[in-house]
Amino acid sequence: MPTVWFALIAFMVGVYVLLDGFDLGAGVIHLLAARTPEERRQVVRAVGPVWDGNEVWLLAAGGAIFAAFPLLYASSFSGFYLPLIMVLWMLMLRGLAIELRAHIDDPLWTTFWDALFFLGSLLLAVFFGAALGNVVRGVPLDAKGYFFEPLWTTFNPRSAQPGILDWYTVLIGVLALATLVMHGANYVALKTEGALNERSRRIGRLACAATALLTVLGTVATFWLRSSMWTSFTGRPWGFVFPVLAVGGLLAVAYFQAKGRELASLLGSGAYILGMLTSTAFAVYPNVLPAVDPANSLTVSNAAAPHYGLVAAVIWWGIAMVLAAVYFVFLYRMFRGKVRLTSEPGY
Amino acid sequence: MNDAVVISRLQFAFTATYHYLFPQFTMGMALLILIFKSLSLRSGKEAYNQAARFWTKIFAITFVMGVVTGIPMEFQFGTNWALFSSYAGNVIAQTLAMEGAFAFFLESTFLGLLLFGERRLGRRGHWAASLLVFAGTWASGFFIVAANAWLQHPVGYTLQQGAMRLTDYWAVLFNSWTGPAYLHVMSGAVVTGTFATAGLGAFYLLRNQHVSYARMFLTVGVTVGLLASIVQLFPSGDLEGRQVAANQPEKLAAMEGQFTTEQGAGIALIGQPDVQAQQLDNAIKIPRVLSFLTYRRWSAEVLGLNAFPAANWPTAIELLYFVYHIMVGLGTIFIAVMGAAAILLRRKTLWTSRPMLWILLLSIPFPFIANTAGWFTSEIGRQPWLIYNLLRIPEGASTVVSSGNVLFTLIGFAGMYLVMGLLYVVLIVREVGSGPEAEESRPQSTAAVVG
């Protein structure tokens, strides 16, 4: 059961990054890709109806971690206190920027929110990447299962007292940024036309190349820093399917971007994201939060809730996911196609 | 209690109080928007639809405030209350996680459709979107009340060597505490929404602007508002009071200023609690009423604070007493205000009775205060317990987070929320100023689906 929940939570986190990932990416690129007020409105309008539902996957995943792995929830949230609260603040600014931007028709107002949309999205992408880097690198857990990390210490990931930011986690943060820029650009290209579409596609191609380079760097750094990540694969070779998905996805992005196939490019970057996240989850397992001192690592065994609760939750979770899938399919179908700015209510 | 715990408590209280200002309004508005959409669908009158569009704009601004201030709440259990989370997570996170998995997905996806999809969905589809937004927001209310209910009245668990384990999921989902609490919270939200609607109608009528919409807002607001105000007192307030008396007698004693055990205890309408002397100063009491309200017998014994060890008394008795009395006092006034307005509405003299319109206008902020006072009563009364009779507040706090870190984040939240509050007021005032009438350039909604 704990392993089942490990997989379900990895799935939810994956779906979150897949969906809100293109909202964040769109936020990062929109100042560059969209040059006129009209184009800026189009980018915001592309994410407008869907960003809130996409963000819910983060909340749902957080709630699931709380229910299924309460010690992991308690330990990681208090241990990562400051950056986590800052992530909340960035999420707040991002959400407000999207929703409030169109309510006052004034250039100063829209410029202000455009800047916050950009900054919030950028910082979120980097912070999320760094968070994942911290999980892989390991945190200074004590024997009771708790830790606290300041924002930085010596920037050395091999330190006995690492900080949130060191050269490794920043590298992963930059990789995450490149990934979401690529993914967001693919989405904006799919939803727009004309000059905006062309600029997005150009950014997407550059970001794909950057992502490829950073993936190589990040993967080498990961295996060099934590050889257990590599031995997870060699020990259970079926797990190679996840990195293959990631590589295949990235190749697909490069191929379909060149061919101008926008939806296929987006599906490719989505596959890359899923492949990378599932690879990481697979390699970290059975740890849920590795420790600097491996004896203190939180695992699927020592951090999980008792069996009864896990079973009860899996049942209602299944129902909830089916319903959510229905809502999302309906929502995206309703808003398929290129963004057309009309004077309809809302935007 | 160490500094970090005190500041963590302050942060949770502040962020939760500020957050709840918004969902009480949106949950109330969700019902009213559904009513306007239903009236429009049934009567074919576009004016009702336009009213729904107007309130949806106010809903959207309020909802995003609620969402962004709500996210910190889910995470704050882990950041500042880690020991509580680890101890009780396998039980309480069931309902908390269900809120995310069921209610948030529902309300967020269909809000997108409500805001942007009127043309694509057509009349019936758009009405359905408003129904599902209502369902999502009210489901969210259910799950969060259920989570709080477990703190007040823990059920469905065993303790094995001090470790809390869930043993009965259904007992947690259908905790007897949840029903009355949910009814009371939701009708409280409807009170907020209806006073805002009726109050805005009164505002426009007093200025002789948007007259037909003003009358519509008043009619719907007063009608639904009277119902909600009554339900707030009876049966929901009564049920809440009785379950507090039955399950949390120390809370009841403290909030009523009942220092000593008494048979045929009277209810204090007013008075200042003197905790040091264990008495109520200059109290005006109606004899025997408290006994009747809580136990349905005029001579029933009501336990006073002196029947319990001082270590289990709520830690802020004076504050608890006052917020409770503010809540009840306001709740009674709401019935009077809506009742008077309803009578004038029936007599068709409401539109011209300016004193009543003024009262309705000035009443707008008070349901926000009453709902806040009610939650203060519920939560301050639960103290010193985090989980009633199981875990005290300091026992649940995060040990790894220093007071400096918590103060940093508290100041950060306070600063952001201050600015956000100002922004909110500015935006709402602008929407109110624009008014409900359609812009000339807005095309009428058609049944065509535009891809």
Write a short abstract of this structure.
The complex is a heterodimer of chains A (347) and B (451). Chain A has twelve helices and two strands.
The number of helices of chain B is: 15
Order of helices and strands of chain A: HHHHHHHHHHHEEH
Question: Which residue ranges of chain A are poorly predicted, with pLDDT under 50 across at least 5 consecutive positions?
Answer: none
Main sheet of chain B?
2 strands, antiparallel
- Classify the helix fraction of chain B into a percent range: over 70%
The geometry of chain B reads as: globular
How would you describe the overall organization of this protein?
The complex is a heterodimer of chains A (347) and B (451). With 347 residues, chain A is an all-alpha fold. Chain A has a single domain (2-334), classed as Formate dehydrogenase/DMSO reductase fold. Chain A has 12 helices and 2 strands, in the order αααααααααααββα. Chain A has helices at residues 2-33, 37-47, 51-68, 70-79, 81-100, 107-137, 167-191, 194-225, 227-235, 241-259, 262-284, 307-334; strands at 287-289, 298-299. In chain A, a hairpin with an 8-residue loop joins strand 1 and strand 2. In chain A, helix 1 (2-33) runs antiparallel to helix 2 (37-47) and helix 9 crosses helix 11 (262-284). The N and C termini of chain A lie far apart (46 Å). With 451 residues, chain B is mostly helical. In chain B, 72% of the residues lie in helices and 7% in strands. Chain B has 15 helices and 8 strands. Chain B has a two-stranded antiparallel ribbon with strand order 1-2. A two-stranded antiparallel ribbon of chain B has the order 3-6. The termini of chain B are far apart. Classes of the chains: A mainly alpha (347), B mainly alpha (451).
